[in-house]
Amino acid sequence: MSVNGIGGGAMSVDRIMAMRAQILEKNQALSRANPEVAVPATEAPKGNSFTSTLEGMLGDVNKAQNQAGQLSAAYERGETIDIAKVMLARQQASVGFEATLQVRNKLLSAYKDIMSMPV
Fold first, then answer.
1. Does the CA dihedral 36-20-47-43 come out positive or negative?
2. Number of other CB atoms surrounding residue 96 within 10 Å
3. Helix (H, G, I), strand (E, B), or coil: what is residue 12?
4. What average pLDDT score do residues 35-57 get?
5. How many structural domains is the chain composed of?
6. Are residues 38 and 50 in the same domain?
7. What angle do CA 8, 10, 13 make, to 5 degrees?
8. Separation CA 77–CA 31 (nearest Å)
9. Is there a single domain that holds both residue 100 and residue 50?
10. What b-and-e string marks burial along 47-71, b requiring 16 or more CB atoms within 10 Å of the CB?
């Protein structure tokens, strides 16, 4: 039985499970070789969940946008602020927002793919 049901170049479920077993086996061997660095397979790293990472990134983007807004407003009021600093802050906020938008689009695409999978 193939993963995507097409057959041709698709990998079989058995082959994928065998590859998974090999990866787990190699991971355990690496854990035994260097126990100080190893993370137990049954435990997720503390504080590094997807949700907390995403919240942190969104907070950083929000902070960059707020800072860019404050610098722009201060420049418009005539305060002595370097225009290069204002433009750099605005560009950083823009890039952060675009990256966040792309992550959102990828998450929505993955969600749609998962929801359209047959049960």
1. negative
2. 19
3. strand
4. 66
5. 2
6. no
7. 130
8. 59
9. yes
10. eeeeeeeeeeeeeebeebbeebeeb
* Model pLDDT for residues 71-89, shown as the tens digit of each residue: 999 999 998 888 899 999 9
Are 20 and 41 contacting, i.e. CB atoms less than 8 angstroms apart? no
Do 36 and 4 lie in one domain? The reply is yes
Residue identified by tokens 């355990």 is 28
Which pair of tokens denotes residue 101? 């938008």
Average pLDDT over residues 15-35: 76
Domain hosting residue 111, numbered range:
46-119
Q: Cα(39)–Cα(47) distance, rounded to whole angstroms? A: 14
User: Which one, of 47, 43, 60, 61, lies nearest residue 101 by Cα?
Assistant: 61
